[in-house]
């Protein structure tokens, strides 16, 4: 996407991309179009990543920990010096809005492809930015925003702000650390939690409060500004479909705004940019009530490229990354506001490594099979590769699927089909959830708000694995000879294989598959000339033939599409955007399962507390030997920017030996509860006044 109006003035020879994943790949593509040599940086965890392969030069900058690699200013500066980079594109996240980083680049005479340190300073603090733009005629949400407010001052100001209200960290971003307070009496208890989260996440516990706008819609405006005083906007994006203040689906233009409001909100965004002499691409975020779409309130300015920038590119035909580079090189904008025309409609869905059915817990693993959609009106910004390890060290976003259509319905229909054609085996993704979301009646009608997903989620019905699909996976697993080898045979020996081979008819094999926690299926698989006869339960056998080279499977003579992959003892299955995995149990695992069921009465809770995801222990709330109640928080584990609290399953005495900073694996036992009859009574009915 090259703008014909761009000049041929000299640009940078070499640009370093100080980021990773899909955004690094996307920036490298534009640099290649401009004929600029690209430099990638990578941590040890990303040595085989796609952005490393696509760049002209790649430099290792440290271990997997972001603090020691992608967030290390010294490491990035060293990479610039070693490669002769004249400029740095920060992407988004990491150092993209870091004032110290921008200043360090300036001191080293290296161009920062972003705004000035002054703009980063003013807009990087929510309190400062809100007060600043208010003085330049930009409408803001009613609230109290002053530096250094104490809890007591916030409590005293709450009545004037009004309830419900929103507590926000001044140094925050991405929606993290926000707390909704419905009633005055809940505020005092929420403020300490908000400060702790703000201090932990951002190193600054400064808080402010705003009135909570009911039925709110999140609408943001893309702006471009050069170093010669020219500022334009490229229309707005609707980002109201969010979960926990994190965007899930974005589109351009918004189905809410009319042309008059679009012009007004665009001008307000330009005024916010002018107020700090902004330079480059930036986004001004507004809150709009669905009940009063002609009123909008400034929330914050993101002084960088946004994750959702592709939808603006598709409806305007303007490459934002190219303009970022040209503006940083000193070029003037050759576009006027009248040159910006919005054509058609574009929608973006973020594909995450997470499990929506398990509370959106992050997922890790190795990509064992990948297929990404192609076709008219489809764009995929991705960093995925076959064999790529998805680490818990970084954000769980894997890719973005973006579609364009002549109108909103066509764009949504194309997105639905593109997600159905997306296959990522080896790690759980949210693809099925995205399809359910964009086919909701309210979403299709454009009736959106930022609380919609939380309301809709309990009503979503996720697909369950069928008996037929269990039979297919049992046949594939049996055919691939996954089994425990006999210990008295050397590795690789044919006698160690347990695939049923013998002279004459191959013997049937019994396969045990865990399809869900506590749900183990026993399947008899008989090899035949045509494939496998599979016996599951009391029903008739199914004849299964897998055609791996064709991406299909035949069941009882009927062929169907299916992507099937195997990673050790785990079998993966994907169909129309839905995917699942089952695990083949070996003899030792079957015995462990049986013993654990015997050890406790049927229907009682498991006294072993396991981590639901791999990650780092951020806090431990109890000590070894403490008495705990069922539901009490024991510890918190963080992975992929998400913190998950693990709680006691039963009342009793806890055995726990972890501390903050310890690493845990998925399904690792992190605590055990020793129950007693006395403690089980603690959580019983509250005594009456007379009994007390």
Biggest sheet, in brief? 9 strands, antiparallel
Strand content: 25-35%
Name the poorly predicted regions. Answer: 4-8, 482-487, 677-692
Radius of gyration: 28 Å
Please tally the helical runs, counting DSSP H or I stretches of 4 or more residues.
Answer: 18
Strand order of the largest sheet: 29-28-27-26-25-24-32-31-30
Strand segment tally: 40
Return the structural class.
Answer: alpha+beta
Shape: globular
The percent range for helix content is 25-40%
Beginning-to-end CA distance, first to last residue: 75 Å
Mean pLDDT across every amino acid position? 88
Descriptive overview:
Helix 4 packs antiparallel against helix 5 and helix 12 runs antiparallel to helix 13 (431-438). A hairpin with a 4-residue loop joins strand 27 and strand 28 (552-555). It contains 18 helices and 40 strands. The longest helix is centred in the first third of the chain and has 19 residues, at 184-202. Helix content is 26%, strand content 31%. It is of the alpha+beta class. It is globular and about 80 Å long. It starts with 13 loop residues before the first strand and ends in a 12-residue tail after the last helix. Strands 29-28-27-26-25-24-32-31-30 form a nine-stranded antiparallel beta sheet, with helices on one face.
């Amino acid at each position: 996407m090259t703008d014909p109006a761009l000049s041929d003035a000299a640009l940078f020879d070499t640009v370093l991309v100080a980021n990773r994943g899909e955004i690094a790949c996307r920036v490298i593509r534009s640099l290649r179009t401009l004929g600029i040599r690209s430099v990638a940086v990578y941590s040890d965890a990303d040595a085989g990543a796609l952005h490393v392969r696509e760049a002209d030069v790649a430099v290792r900058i440290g271990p997997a920990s972001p603090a020691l690699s992608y967030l290390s200013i010294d490491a990035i500066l060293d990479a610039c010096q070693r490669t002769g980079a004249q400029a740095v594109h920060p992407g988004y996240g990491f150092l993209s809005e870091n004032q110290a980083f921008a200043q360090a680049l300036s001191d080293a005479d290296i161009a920062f492809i972003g705004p000035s340190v002054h703009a980063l300073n003013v807009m990087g603090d929510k309190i400062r930015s809100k007060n600043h733009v208010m003085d330049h005629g930009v409408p803001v949400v009613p609230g109290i925003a002053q530096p250094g407010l104490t809890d007591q001052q916030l409590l005293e100001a709450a009545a004037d702000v009004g309830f419900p209200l929103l507590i926000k960290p001044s140094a925050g971003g991405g929606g993290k650390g926000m707390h909704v307070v419905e009633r005055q009496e809940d505020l005092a208890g929420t403020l300490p939690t908000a400060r702790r989260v703000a201090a932990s996440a951002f190193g600054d516990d400064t808080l402010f409060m705003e009135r909570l706008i009911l039925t709110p819609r999140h609408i943001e405006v893309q702006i471009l500004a050069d170093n010669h005083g020219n500022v334009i906007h490229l229309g707005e994006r609707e980002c109201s479909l969010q979960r926990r203040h994190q965007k899930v689906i974005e589109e351009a233009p918004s189905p809410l705004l009319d042309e008059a409001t679009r012009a007004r909100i665009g001008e307000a965004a330009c005024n916010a940019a002018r107020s700090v002499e902004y330079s480059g691409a930036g986004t001004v975020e507004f809150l709009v009530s669905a009940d009063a779409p002609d009123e909008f309130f400034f929330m914050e300015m993101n002084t960088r490229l946004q994750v959702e920038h592709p939808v603006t590119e598709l409806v305007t035909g303007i490459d934002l990354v190219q303009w970022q580079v040209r503006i940083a090189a000193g070029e003037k904008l050759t576009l006027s506001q009248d040159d910006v025309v919005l054509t058609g409609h574009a929608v973006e869905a973020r594909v995450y490594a997470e499990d929506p059915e398990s509370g959106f817990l992050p997922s890790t693993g190795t990509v064992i099979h990948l297929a990404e959609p192609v076709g008219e009106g489809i764009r995929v910004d991705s960093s995925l590769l076959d064999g790529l390890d998805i680490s818990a060290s970084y954000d769980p976003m894997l890719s973005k699927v973006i579609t364009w259509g002549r109108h909103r319905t066509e764009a949504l229909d194309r997105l639905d089909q593109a997600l159905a054609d997306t296959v990522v085996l080896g790690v759980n993704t949210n693809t099925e959830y995205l399809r359910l979301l964009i086919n909701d009646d309210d979403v299709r009608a454009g009736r959106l708000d930022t609380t919609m997903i939380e309301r809709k989620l309990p009503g979503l019905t996720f697909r369950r694995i069928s008996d037929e699909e269990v039979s297919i996976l049992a046949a594939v697993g049996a055919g691939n000879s996954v089994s425990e080898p006999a210990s008295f045979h050397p590795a690789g020996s044919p006698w160690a294989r347990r695939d049923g081979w013998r002279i004459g008819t191959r013997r049937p094999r019994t396969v045990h598959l865990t399809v869900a926690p506590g749900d183990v299926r026993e399947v008899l698989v008989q090899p035949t000339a045509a494939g496998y006869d599979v016996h599951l339960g009391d029903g008739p056998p199914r004849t299964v033939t897998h055609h791996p080279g064709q991406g299909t499977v035949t069941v009882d003579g009927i062929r169907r599409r299916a992507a099937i992959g195997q990673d050790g003892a785990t079998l993966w299955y994907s169909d129309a955007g839905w995917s699942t995995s089952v695990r083949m149990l070996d003899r030792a695992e079957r015995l462990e399962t049986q013993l654990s069921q015997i050890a406790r009465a049927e229907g009682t809770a498991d006294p072993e507390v396991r981590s639901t995801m791999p990650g780092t222990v951020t806090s431990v709330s109890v000590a070894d030997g403490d008495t705990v109640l069922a539901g009490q928080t024991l510890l918190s584990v963080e992975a992929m920017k998400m913190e998950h609290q693990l709680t006691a399953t039963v009342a009793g005495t806890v055995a726990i030996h972890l501390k903050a900073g310890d690493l845990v694996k998925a399904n690792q036992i992190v605590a055990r509860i020793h129950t007693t009859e006395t403690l089980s009574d603690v959580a019983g009915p509250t005594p009456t006044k007379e009994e007390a």
